[in-house]
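Quick note —
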Amino acid sequence: MKMTARTPRTPRAGRLARTAAATVALCVLGGAGSAYAYWTSTGLGAGSATNGTMQTVIVDALIAGDTPQNSLVPGGTADVILRATNPNAHTVTIYGLAANGAVTADAAHPGCTTTGVTFTPPPVPVAPPVTIQPNSSILLTLPDSASMSAASLSACQGSQFRIPVTLEVRK
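Predicted structure written out below.
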């Protein structure tokens, strides 16, 4: 038997190029597949939360110790003073105020049936923001928010006026 030495074969340039291209394609697709799997993964779990009920912020006007800085006269304006109490365990911010009924005179002035008094609330949202800390109260002065027309009766002289307002607060 005769043995001949064979010379090693070198791969053809075309086959080498196809192998290299297939290897690169597999690497690219494998990397893209991993990235796709990473960004599209999902998970399961459970959670819960509770939402407490916000208590009503209480509004009072002129309680003992609160005194107005100016008086209301026919044709003029005066400040409105409110005491707002936050009974909640969290801070609230006053967002807006609005009139909430007819203005009436105090019980000592029963003849004051036409008060001529109107309330002009500040623009909404209240600026600068007014916050009320948890379980506390603040004194809020609304400059020139009450006005009295010349139609007010003389029997209204010296009376204090009840101006019902609604406060909108937010957590």
